[in-house]
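Hi F.,

I've been meaning to write this up properly since the lab meeting, where we talked about keeping a consistent format for the predictions we share between groups. The idea is simple: the sequence comes first, exactly as it goes in, then the structure tokens exactly as they come out, then a line or two of notes. No screenshots and no reformatting. I'm using this chain as the first example so we have something concrete to point to.
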Amino acid sequence: MDETRRCPYCGEEIRAEATRCRYCRSMLTTLDPERWHRDHPERRVAGVASAVARAFTIPVGAARLGFIVLTFFHLLGPLLYLALWALIPFAPGDPSPLDRLRGAIQHLFHSPRRPDDSRPVANGADRGEWPRDEGRSGGLPLRVVP
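Output, unedited:
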């Protein structure tokens, strides 16, 4: 017997691989996070149109045409395409580019810091000494201009 599951909208038993409920005609795949990824065989540029087409079970050409039509409305097509590229991961289970950027920024600002006493001292200015130019002026203090 085929595996079944319940429709989240009407509660009827449907096949597990169904993309649309046969009773209430609800789309079942749009909220499935496993279907929102850009690594599909139909991808051309960044895979956003193929990800949208797979999630909404529409032809890829219709999704591409939708982005082209939205381009004529205040450049909404490219902006939406770029935003979806940043939000949709490349493969199922991978982080999205936006998540990777956020992780890199957090790693940059939350990296372990060295204790203050182990910082290298470049010219002794942190100890109250004047910077010296040992090569040209014979070790005389340089004039500090504010």
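Notes:
The CA atoms of residues 51 and 116 lie 49 Å apart.
Residues 97-109 form the longest helix (13 residues).

If this format works for you, I'll send the rest the same way.

G.
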